Amino acid sequence: MIRWVVVIFLAVIVFSTLLPWLEKLGIGRLPGDVRFRLFGRDFSLPFASTILLSTLVFLAAKLL
Fold first, then answer.
1. Which residues pair with 42 in a beta bridge?
2. How far apart are the C-alpha atoms of 40 and 60, rounded to whole Å?
3. What is the residue-level pLDDT of the chain in tens, covering all 64 positions?
4. How far apart are the C-alpha atoms of 35 and 29, rounded to whole Å?
5. In 10 A of CB 29, how many CB atoms?
6. What is the DSSP letter of 1?
7. Taking the complete model, does pTM exceed 0.90, yes or no?
8. Which residues pair with 33 in a beta bridge?
């Protein structure tokens, strides 16, 4: 189980660093993604984008 926690943690780090580049493609601004500002910082909870990317990765893995 600890392996999955590490994998999810690394995926969140990679996704958050790539988020500015992915926003240009429309990922991170889908309906279902939550963005809010708290104490002068922007926070993003990309629920719909995560589901979309997970589905694409699953389909790519299934085809290969």
1. 37
2. 39
3. 788 788 878 877 887 788 788 778 877 788 888 888 989 988 888 888 888 888 888 898 888 8
4. 9
5. 15
6. -
7. no
8. 46
Q: Whose structure tokens read 């910082």?
A: 41
Nearest Cα neighbor of 31 from 48, 6, 14, 56 is 48
Phi, psi of 42 (to 5 degrees): -90, 130
Q: Domain residues of the chain, as ranges?
A: 2-63
Distance CA 25, CA 45 (A): 17
pLDDT for residue 39: 92
Give the closest residue to 15 by CA, choosing from 2, 28, 30, 34.
28
Q: Report the b/e string of 4-20 with b at 16+ CB within 10 A.
A: eeeeeeeeeeebeeeee
